[in-house]
Prior knowledge:
Layout: E1 8-9, H1 29-34, H2 41-52, H3 57-64, H4 68-76, H5 83-92, H6 97-101, E2 118-122, H7 125-132, E3 136-143, E4 149-159, E5 162-167, E6 180-189, E7 194-206, H8 210-219, E8 232-236, E9 240-248
Parallel strand pairs: 1-4
Antiparallel strand pairs: 2-9, 3-4, 3-6, 4-5, 5-8, 6-7, 7-8, 7-9
Amino acid sequence: MFPGPDAHVQHLETEADDTPSGTGTVGDDTAASRTSANPGDIGRRVAEERRRRGLSREETARRARISPQYLAYLEEQPSDPSTATLFALAGALDTTAGSLRGGGVDRPPGQGHALLHPRLNDLDQEECRRLLSTHGVGRVAVTAPDGRPAVVPVNYEVVDDAIVFRTRPGSVPAAAAGDEVAFEVDHVDEAMSQGWSVLAVGPATTVTDPDAVRDLARRAHTEPWAGGTRDTWVSIRPTRLTGKRITPADQSARR
């Protein structure tokens, strides 16, 4: 969904903590590898990339030809690995040294090369639910209090088949309550030029029962990235769930 010229483009309710300090050109691995990242940033990106690809520390270390103990240290302690180690890890994780340095943090996804023979597949309901059920960041499309459309990123959870997120009273995301809204989650693998997108549509309501609110707070995996007091829970019950996946033509539609 692309908002029109009168639409709000809302800043992240999920503002991240990691801010890259490198000065290399975006996409330039050589320049990025020479810059100095914030302590711990590289380790966090390595750990996230490894988990996203379903790799153990042992397997990642084997691919990068480093010791698992050093990889554990890198992921858990502020450190700045050598250029050779950084490139070895990038190769092991099918990404780039620039990405691990944070060189692409401010770049919109999808600027990689198009696949030579892409395949676009519809996702069935089961696969859509599976992909949606991984908590993270999604975008909710709402009508803002001033009557104009807005698309807002929020940290979300899936609880009992409902998409839930917390926000502040009177905020743009809170305006979802009482309407049928669209909620979208996607993932783009820049290194492989492939990814998926899931769209959920359904009515949104504010969770008001005190026991239900306490249960949601207890079961939440993460705090909203934007911080502050955000104790208004909004629940979306999908009535329509659709999705697409793009892969190389010689790969299965499911990963």
